[in-house]
Amino acid sequence: MSGYPSPHLPADGHAPVPPPPGGYAEVPPPPGGYAQIPPGGSPPPAAPAPRRKGRLALIIGAVVVLLLVVGVGLWFLFRAPPIPDPEPAAEQLAAALQEGKPAGVPLAMETSASPDEQYAQVFEQLLATVGEDAGTVQVKSVTPVEEGDGGTATATATLAWSWPVATKEAWEYETVAQLTYPGATDGEAGQWEAGWSTGVLVPGLEAGERLAVERTEPARGDIVTPTGETIVGMTPVHRVGIDKTRPGWETAAEQLGRVLKFDQATTDRIAAQVAAAGDKAFIDVITIRDNDSEYDFEGAMAINGVVGIPDELSLARDRDFARPLLGTVGEATAEIVEESKGTIKPGDMVGLSGLQAAHDEQLRGVPGLAVTIEPAEPAEGAEPAEGGEGGESREAFTIDKKDGEPLTITLDPATQVRAEAALADLDDLASAIVAIKPSTGEVLAAASGPGSEGYSTATLGQYAPGSTFKIATSLAMLRSGITPDSPLPCTESIDVEGRTFQNVPGYPASATGDAVPFRTVFANSCNTAFISQHQNISQQQLHDAGAALGLGVEAKAFGAGAAMGDVPAEAAATEHAASMIGQGKVLATPLAMATVAASVSAGHTVSPRLVEPSGGKAADKAPAGDLTTEEAATLRDLMGGVVQEGSATVLRDVPGIVGAKTGTAQFGDGSKAHVWMLAMTDDLAAVVFIEEGELGSTTAGPVMHEFLTGS
Hints:
Helices cover 28% and strands 23% of the residues. The chain is an alpha+beta fold and 711 residues long. The chain folds into 3 domains: 87-216; 223-366, Penicillin-binding protein 2a (Domain 2); 413-661 and 675-709, Beta-lactamase (3-Layer(aba) Sandwich), CATH 3.40.710. Strands 1, 2, 3, 4, 5 and 6 form a 6-stranded mixed beta sheet that branches. Strands 8, 9, 10, 11 and 16 form a 5-stranded mixed beta sheet that branches. The protein has a 5-stranded antiparallel beta sheet with strand order 18-17-25-24-23, sandwiched between helices.
């Protein structure tokens, strides 16, 4: 094809512009024909195309676009705001209801009544029962929005209410609030409103109705023995007091003081309370058991202004029976109410001390509670509702009361009474007797004398045990290789790093010497002989020996507050020497020393037990320490010598006596001493403690004899 132009290409060889669809149009020649182009010349310039129509099209297009933009802007400017989400409005309503101020949120009202006042009236009694801040209100759900005419909408909120009306139980229910959206106003979005009615507060509650709350007090559990004998039970009493609404109250305090034999200070205190009380007050003065011969109840009732209100209280068999140990019951203090976190209400009867306080939850039980909807009172002049003047109450929520459960304790009433009788004359000194049954660890008596002034010296009073601790020292010595026949030096005095120790005044000269058998040293309680071994027996060994006998070991099975003494594991030289004879920093309670005697008697470490496990659980009777049978037998033999030839011969005539140990522990400037005596009979281990006395043998010994023999 070289040398010839393509029939489809122009002469210059460039690709032609493709023809329009349908082929090339025939273009007529211009007037005058086609211009002739001279060879090698250029075509004449083309005539300019018309431009007016193109500009007009551009202007029209721009105007159309502008109008569209303006239209869209005006639509956005004047369109109705979208319907807001109703969920925040429901949350605000729930928060306002929980706060007790529903009027704080937009409400759709059909009444002129104040929502806040209605709330207060409906829940007045419930709030008094559970506390002002106890109830909770939460949004459970909100239905999807339903749009109406003119931009309006509706939704429904379900509210979940919870009132903690009992320790482990709450009154829970749901209410429904109708939410309405009124639409926009002047281009501004409207607010959701909650339709208000008392049914928003409680399901089905009608206008004017309110809640009533009634608590049913449970019966307090008794304190009983393992055989079922009642030690503490509900007892009829009269609350005797002065009623300021009665004539004659002005002089009642003085007269009552004389009739009931109060001292003048007590009478003056009562008179001051009466004067300070309100015009309609009742001032409690004393609670008197029915048929209590100690007080002239009939004489008190004859006084103008004095009233006796019948009641029942949880009381022991006698006024003073084991009082420091058992404790008392009375109205809850403000501190107890606060610490209970809603469990206990003002006016509730609770344990205030001793076992009553330690086991209050078990003994107190759970109150019953009934929440009822009370009908509205008819308006003045209106006809009463059918069925009664104010209609009928209907139940909203009920909890059945749960009476308290009995508490079983090991105390033996006869043994306790005998212990208290033996201490009865110790009016000015703290004193105690504790008795344990070695075979079981049961505490049969824990008596604190009148001089303890209501304090449980028996279980909590900690003092230096003096020579009664020599039982533990002897165990440490036995473990070091000393036998009952080993000779020990019992001299008049011994010096340890500048401190001189002596025997108690009146120590028998016949039991002194450079080589006195250990059994004789123990029987007569030679201080110098025990201290002579302080370099052979470490303080740690003393600590371990005490623990083997139950001293200084937590009494986990006791079931009440108790102290078990302390034997330090470390001590300086002179302090360690003092520890050998139960002084220095060694401490013990009567309960702890009774446990020592019980462990020796039982042949293994005893853990004392006062409260029987509840719920059918068996008591753990396994030995708690490492005292061996052989060690205990040797200690019993040594303690038997104390009765036969030593410092406890006052007990020789006690039936079944096995052994004993006396103790005298100087305190203060050394001129005073705590006195002790431990004793073991067939299956009884006991201790007598008196805060101050001459010697364990002369002061505590006779009291022990009276306790063991009943005379």
